[in-house]
Amino acid sequence: MGDVELKKSPVVFDKESHTYTLGERTLQGITGIITSQLFPDKYAGVSASVLRNAAERGTSVHEEIEMAENGFEPDEPREETLSWKKIKSEARLEWLESEYTVSDEKDWASNIDLVMRDADGGIVLADIKTTYRPDLDYAGWQLGVYRYLFELQNPGLEVKRLLIVWLRDGKGQLIEVTAHGKEEVKRLLDDSRDGVQFVPDSVKEENVDAQAMFGEAPEESVARLWAMASKIEKMKKTVSSNMKGWMQDKGLTSFGGSLIKVSLSQGAPKETFDKERFREEHPDLWAEYVTLEDATPRLLVTLTKDAKKKYVDGVDETKLLSNF
Question: Is the model's pTM score more than 0.90?
Fold first, then answer.
């Protein structure tokens, strides 16, 4: 096999601030937009200390593997590094680059953990994961974006395989990842750049008789309803805050009339269980007691910018409800 020439990106990555710059311009990384657009609750309930410890551990594993591949393996390597060398050899993968920067040189940039080629010369992109359980849904988007930017930067090269390199507790595994298509990935990046909520193909509208379900103007009715719900929720928070302040000023614990009863309690300390910390620190116990339930379909309705401008500031509830 001949040598593979990878184009070096003009984008400069600063490891300390984790920023990407191209001349005077700062480009955005892709992990943040994948999380905000598709997995907003990914780290909900996870304590800052657990996230910090996991990030530090992951960074140290990444850095040592990069050093080892560049010929600077420490005298006493981590067990993750030894696991990586073993599975790389068994899979007959040839290392080409670590932390390879890819970019569209306009808006986006990111570093790919590993660029390799297989025994047949095919390009392989891989991301190293050290978490308790690899998130394949997230990786499908992450590696899909990596592939899109890699091929954009290297027009003569086509990515053959996408892998997770999972290193945990002295074990190593290569996990094949099915990424999202290039058109859908491009739409994710375009929507994120334009400040629009991205809707994946998997949750797009299907061909149903929407008119029979919602009336003569189904899309308008749904948009108005979601806009009204958003507005009412904000109003509830404001009114609740005002009522609580008023009751505290008056020294009241309750009041009411013929339509509502309002009470104000002092509250009590609430016990919480840091499940992410427990899972991180006691993986064996977690695996013994945790059970997985089947996934249930999730409906996602997102207002476009035009709908927000049109309906959020003025909702005709009477007309909306007449359609249901």
Answer: no
